[in-house]
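Hi everyone,

Forwarding the result from last night's run.
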Amino acid sequence: MKALAIVLALLCLGTGLAACGSNDSTDTAAEDAQAAKLEELRLEKETAEQKAKQAKAEAEKEVRAAKKEAAPESAPEPEPEPEDVPDVVGMRLPEAESTLSAVGYTTEPENTDTTFGIVVPSHYTVCEQSEPHGSVVNVLAQKYGC
């Protein structure tokens, strides 16, 4: 930004000198000096941009290395065995979800008797429970009874 401001100032200065009506030899010398200064500023700007890109790339590389070092080598959690699935039929939906969650399963509740789906989970009772698919157990929860 500083380089851009300097370039604009030099352009305005050069335009002002040209408007003064100086002779051709003075104008040419001033224009040559101005062009040389502009080229120097352009090169400085390019160099600064390249250094900034390099510094950014090095910083990103260091961050990735630090994250890699800080991340613990963790093994994936073993999936629960199907025989460990508790029977939640007849329970209220929140109670069934917490029971299944306690042994490592997530609950995927479905509903067939309301238009907008399950809005207030505590109003629903689990009527059916499927076999787990991985760590997900599908349950049919109905609001108006099974």
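The first strand starts at residue 106 and ends at 110.

Cheers,
N.
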